[in-house]
Amino acid sequence: MFETLLDDVAQNSTFRHIHPGTKILLGLGSLLICLVSPSPVVPLISGIILSLVILIPARISPLMYGELLLAPAIFTAFSIIVLLFMLGGGEVIWRFSPVSWINFTITEGAVRQSVLILFRVFGCTISLFFIALTTPVTDLFNIMKRCRIPLELIDLMMIMYRYIFITYEQAREIWQAQIMRLGYSRVKESIRSFSMLCGMLFISSWIAGEGLIHAMDCRCYNGIMPSLDPAGPVQMPSLILVLLYLAGLIGILLMITTGVVVVP
Amino acid sequence: MNVILEARDIRYRYPGSIEAIKGISFHMRRGEKIALVGPNGAGKSTLLQMFNGMIRPNSGTVLFDKEPIQYDTLSLRQLRKRVGYVLQNPDRQIIAPTVYQDVAFGPANLGYDDQAIRQAVALALRQVGLEGFERRPPHHLSGGEKKRVAIAGVLAMDPDVLVFDEPTSGLDPSGSEDLMELLDELNHDGKTVIISTHDVELAYPWADRAILLLDGRILEEDVPDVAFGNLDHVRMAHLSVPTLLELSQELGKRGFAQPKRKPRSVLDMIHIIENLINRSGSNAKPGSISVCNVDEERDTSIATWVKSRPGLTVGAMGTRAKQRASKEQLALEFTYGVIDKCILRALRGQDSLILTTSGMVDRVAIRVEAYCKDSGNTIAVIPLNTTNQSSVAGLLNEVVKENDPSH
User: Fold this and answer.
1) Are B371 and B267 in contact (CB under 8 A)?
2) Cβ of B106 and A219 within 8 Å?
């Protein structure tokens, strides 16, 4: 569900015209900085700034953005709770032992580590969302080619990308047809309906595969999958902004690690 | 006789199934428009797939350009470059994740260099009216747009023959008419076009020749009014007689003399009826038809010109003309069958403007002239151009004044 949605959002994004390289530099750059940062401050700053960029100039609806963040947030929250009890070091802050041989402790070190991980996840997730929400998959293929990813893999990815939507649409149609005839009404019925759906999808994918070869043959296929014309030259203003931003983040990071600024 | 495709007694049996093609011989001339009509399972698609070598007949030969088709890989690739095949379901045909990549698929595989690919794609997208769609993914397109992408993908290889399997299936009525116009446009550019269809009403006015196919055999092969006029055959092929043809036949049965040339359009029908009630060449002086070539009138505003002439209706013929109209926010009265509809208006003493493209400008004059010769009416076709717009405008004003029934 989200795959369709995310790509659709990216296709219609106001950042569509910005060179995909610039956007990926921003996303991956801030992702790396968040990952190596020893302090939660840098990922926090990066996350907030990128969120503002996503919400204001890129005009992604806040509601949708919130919904998107919710899924990783819940996952992270549970992981952090576990981590709090698992990690150790420093003074014990809180202890809970209902029986003598069960011992739950939260230590100062664990809190520090967990907060760092929490913020790193926050920063990294938002960096990735930035790419996902502004750069359509179709623009990524060119970048992959330039990164020397084997052409066979990219060709496969292109065809898969094309067929995801066709298969998804087909699955939806079959599912609707089943619902209309009261499929999924009971547990046993659901299992039967779902297996039918999978079987039908398999058969239709098989036929689609044969159709694909047929279609490619019709058009003189000789092993070449053309790539999209590059989206024009890199626009300097946006690239400079991105570089400035990344330089700023690295600056803060260096200041913290070298102890110029002391973070509690 | 310039035959481009020929079938000589071809037969084909699907493996483990009944014989689908039971001995078919026919030929196609260069520049012809052929409609292959028949019920489901008549073998239309099977036959069409033989033209680009997708299916090899069990016996008999298919000839392209007077040479029997060879079935080795290299010859097949050469054949498929020259015989473009557009599948019924565009989702099956569109392979690549963006419009540009899909249209570039053929040229890239034919080994064109980047510059040539870019040119071929730009030209093909221009022909089908999808400029600016290059970076769009196919699943964001409407059914009609997908169909056009599929056609562009074939046009990019610049084939001589275009084969369409059910080109109008899944399109709304106006989309179908638009598509048939596009096929006309392509045919006008020199392509030989063959389509398969169930839609008699669409095929009847469009085709130069209709082939009725039933049960793997050719039932009837003739100009559309003869092919569709044979009631027994039409019934056998699970088709229906085109309304206009039926109307003409019914009038004939009731003792109203019918001309030898059967009506192919509403215009023809009106002409027949007017002749019957002796009102042909009635007192009202016919209106005029202005023709504007949008390829030449790039900078001027057509909209202001139109606005200064109330009562003028505007029709557009060809994809670029329609785009221009929507760019200038001109309300189009006619988007298909434009010339005939404008003649109909002219006969009622009203003026119209046809927006069209370079390739089709002549068609207006030719069609109107042919009609006038047939009917004895005179309708003025006035080319509209900017260089001496004032004089043309002045001339038109006079015509309008003369024709205005209130004067």
Assistant:
1) yes
2) yes
Residue B134 in tokens? 């290059």
What number is the ipTM of this complex?
0.78
Side-chain-side CA neighbours of residue B6 (13 Å): 12
Among candidates B74, B72, B80, which has minimal Cα distance to B162?
A: B80
Does B172 lie at the interface with A, CB-CB under 8 angstroms?
no
Same domain membership, residue A182 and residue A205: yes
Place of tokens 């996952």: A75
Query: What is the token pair recorded at B261?
Result: 């040339």
Helix (H, G, I), strand (E, B) or coil at A202: helix
> CATH number of the domain that B298 lies in?
3.40.1010
**Whether B93 and A215 lie within 8 Å, measured CB to CB:** yes
For residue B138, the tally of other CB atoms under 10 A from its CB is 24
Q: Are residues B362 and B341 in the same domain?
A: yes
Closest by Cα among B222, B166, B208 to B30: B208
> pLDDT per residue over A15-25, tens digit each?
888 888 899 99
In B130-149, the residues whose Cβ lies within 8 Å of chain A are: 134-140
Tokens matching residue B85: 């095949």
Q: Do B109 and A222 touch (CB under 8 A)?
A: yes
Is residue B372 pLDDT above 80, yes or no? yes
Which residue of chain B comes nearest to A16, CA vs CA? B135
Task: Please report residues of A whose CB lies closer than 8 A to that of B134.
Answer: 228-229
Contact call for B93 and A223, based on CB within 8 A: no
Report the candidate in B17, B15, B22 with the shortest Cα–Cα distance to residue B59: B22
Structural domains in chain B (count):
3
A224 in a structural domain: no
Structure confidence by residue, pLDDT tens digits, A157-189: 998 888 888 888 889 889 999 888 888 888 888
Nearest to B95 among A11, A159, A222 (CB): A159
Helix, strand, coil percentages, rounded to 5, for chain B: 45, 20, 35
**One domain for residues B52 and B165:** yes
* Whether residue B357 is found in the same domain as residue B383: yes
**CB-side neighbour CA atoms (13 Å) of A124:** 15
**Whole-structure pTM value:** 0.79
